[in-house]
User: What shape does this take?
Amino acid sequence: MVDAAARYYPFDAMTVFCEDETVTATGNLSTGGTEILTVGDGRVDGCVVVDVTAIDIANSDEKYDLIIQGSNSASFASGIQNLASLDFGDATQRDGGGDVDSLIGRYEMPVQNAQAGTEYKYMRARMVVSGTSPSITLTAHLAMKT
Assistant: This one.
Protein backbone atom coordinates (compact mmCIF):
# COMPACT_ATOMS: atom_id res chain seq x y z
CA MET A 1 0.00 0.00 0.00
CA VAL A 2 1.35 3.43 -0.97
CA ASP A 3 1.53 5.96 1.86
CA ALA A 4 0.39 9.03 -0.10
CA ALA A 5 0.38 11.17 3.05
CA ALA A 6 4.13 10.64 3.33
CA ARG A 7 4.80 12.21 -0.09
CA TYR A 8 6.12 15.73 -0.01
CA TYR A 9 4.22 18.45 -1.82
CA PRO A 10 5.36 22.06 -1.54
CA PHE A 11 2.77 24.05 0.38
CA ASP A 12 2.02 27.72 -0.12
CA ALA A 13 -0.85 29.32 1.80
CA MET A 14 -1.60 31.35 -1.34
CA THR A 15 -2.54 28.18 -3.25
CA VAL A 16 -5.18 26.76 -0.88
CA PHE A 17 -8.53 26.10 -2.55
CA CYS A 18 -10.25 25.19 0.72
CA GLU A 19 -9.38 24.18 4.27
CA ASP A 20 -11.49 21.72 6.24
CA GLU A 21 -14.57 22.73 4.22
CA THR A 22 -17.78 20.71 4.47
CA VAL A 23 -19.65 20.70 1.17
CA THR A 24 -23.34 19.73 0.98
CA ALA A 25 -24.37 21.54 -2.21
CA THR A 26 -22.83 22.38 -5.57
CA GLY A 27 -20.59 25.43 -5.49
CA ASN A 28 -17.10 26.87 -5.57
CA LEU A 29 -14.70 26.01 -2.77
CA SER A 30 -13.06 28.83 -0.85
CA THR A 31 -10.72 29.63 1.96
CA GLY A 32 -10.99 32.82 3.96
CA GLY A 33 -13.65 34.06 1.54
CA THR A 34 -11.35 33.69 -1.47
CA GLU A 35 -12.43 31.38 -4.29
CA ILE A 36 -9.89 32.26 -6.98
CA LEU A 37 -6.15 31.56 -7.12
CA THR A 38 -3.88 33.68 -9.29
CA VAL A 39 -1.28 31.39 -10.85
CA GLY A 40 0.09 34.09 -13.13
CA ASP A 41 1.27 34.19 -16.70
CA GLY A 42 2.88 31.20 -18.34
CA ARG A 43 2.37 27.49 -18.03
CA VAL A 44 1.97 26.03 -14.55
CA ASP A 45 2.22 22.30 -13.89
CA GLY A 46 1.18 21.00 -10.52
CA CYS A 47 -0.80 18.62 -8.42
CA VAL A 48 -3.98 19.29 -6.50
CA VAL A 49 -3.58 17.59 -3.13
CA VAL A 50 -6.95 16.67 -1.63
CA ASP A 51 -7.32 15.42 1.94
CA VAL A 52 -10.80 13.98 2.52
CA THR A 53 -11.59 13.77 6.23
CA ALA A 54 -15.29 12.80 5.97
CA ILE A 55 -17.54 11.54 3.18
CA ASP A 56 -21.18 10.46 3.25
CA ILE A 57 -22.08 7.56 0.95
CA ALA A 58 -24.63 5.96 3.29
CA ASN A 59 -27.53 6.12 0.84
CA SER A 60 -25.46 4.62 -1.99
CA ASP A 61 -26.40 7.49 -4.32
CA GLU A 62 -23.97 10.24 -3.29
CA LYS A 63 -21.48 11.55 -5.85
CA TYR A 64 -18.97 14.39 -5.64
CA ASP A 65 -17.09 15.83 -8.63
CA LEU A 66 -14.15 18.10 -7.83
CA ILE A 67 -13.40 20.21 -10.90
CA ILE A 68 -10.41 22.51 -11.23
CA GLN A 69 -11.32 25.35 -13.57
CA GLY A 70 -9.25 28.01 -15.29
CA SER A 71 -10.10 31.43 -16.68
CA ASN A 72 -8.39 34.60 -17.83
CA SER A 73 -11.15 36.62 -16.20
CA ALA A 74 -10.25 37.45 -12.58
CA SER A 75 -13.95 37.14 -11.67
CA PHE A 76 -14.56 33.99 -13.75
CA ALA A 77 -17.26 35.93 -15.63
CA SER A 78 -16.30 34.28 -18.93
CA GLY A 79 -13.92 31.93 -20.66
CA ILE A 80 -14.13 29.16 -18.04
CA GLN A 81 -12.28 25.94 -18.91
CA ASN A 82 -12.37 22.68 -16.94
CA LEU A 83 -8.70 21.78 -16.45
CA ALA A 84 -8.96 18.58 -14.37
CA SER A 85 -11.52 16.60 -12.39
CA LEU A 86 -11.71 13.90 -9.77
CA ASP A 87 -14.84 12.09 -8.65
CA PHE A 88 -15.68 10.70 -5.21
CA GLY A 89 -18.67 8.78 -3.89
CA ASP A 90 -20.43 5.48 -3.81
CA ALA A 91 -18.94 3.03 -6.32
CA THR A 92 -22.26 2.67 -8.13
CA GLN A 93 -22.34 6.41 -8.88
CA ARG A 94 -18.75 7.06 -9.92
CA ASP A 95 -17.79 7.59 -13.56
CA GLY A 96 -15.94 5.00 -15.62
CA GLY A 97 -17.25 1.81 -14.07
CA GLY A 98 -14.99 1.65 -11.03
CA ASP A 99 -16.21 -0.61 -8.22
CA VAL A 100 -14.55 0.95 -5.16
CA ASP A 101 -16.25 3.40 -2.79
CA SER A 102 -14.30 6.57 -2.04
CA LEU A 103 -12.63 6.52 1.35
CA ILE A 104 -11.22 9.05 3.78
CA GLY A 105 -7.63 9.82 2.81
CA ARG A 106 -5.32 11.73 0.48
CA TYR A 107 -5.96 12.02 -3.24
CA GLU A 108 -3.62 13.53 -5.85
CA MET A 109 -4.76 15.07 -9.13
CA PRO A 110 -2.25 16.30 -11.73
CA VAL A 111 -3.26 19.63 -13.29
CA GLN A 112 -1.89 22.29 -15.59
CA ASN A 113 -3.26 25.70 -16.48
CA ALA A 114 -2.81 25.21 -20.22
CA GLN A 115 -5.44 23.62 -22.48
CA ALA A 116 -5.70 23.68 -26.28
CA GLY A 117 -3.04 26.37 -26.63
CA THR A 118 -4.47 28.73 -24.00
CA GLU A 119 -2.81 29.40 -20.66
CA TYR A 120 -5.21 30.40 -17.87
CA LYS A 121 -4.03 32.95 -15.31
CA TYR A 122 -6.66 32.14 -12.66
CA MET A 123 -7.85 28.86 -11.16
CA ARG A 124 -10.64 27.80 -8.84
CA ALA A 125 -12.06 24.56 -7.46
CA ARG A 126 -15.73 23.70 -7.96
CA MET A 127 -17.57 20.81 -6.32
CA VAL A 128 -20.64 19.35 -8.02
CA VAL A 129 -22.62 17.14 -5.64
CA SER A 130 -25.64 14.87 -6.01
CA GLY A 131 -27.51 12.30 -3.99
CA THR A 132 -29.94 12.06 -1.08
CA SER A 133 -27.76 13.59 1.64
CA PRO A 134 -24.37 14.53 0.20
CA SER A 135 -21.69 15.74 2.61
CA ILE A 136 -17.94 15.73 2.13
CA THR A 137 -15.27 17.47 4.20
CA LEU A 138 -11.95 18.21 2.55
CA THR A 139 -8.87 20.36 2.33
CA ALA A 140 -7.35 21.04 -1.08
CA HIS A 141 -4.32 22.96 -2.30
CA LEU A 142 -2.32 23.35 -5.48
CA ALA A 143 1.27 22.17 -5.23
CA MET A 144 3.12 23.73 -8.14
CA LYS A 145 6.13 22.03 -9.72
CA THR A 146 9.24 24.10 -9.46
User: Anything to note?
Assistant: The chain has a mean pLDDT of 92.
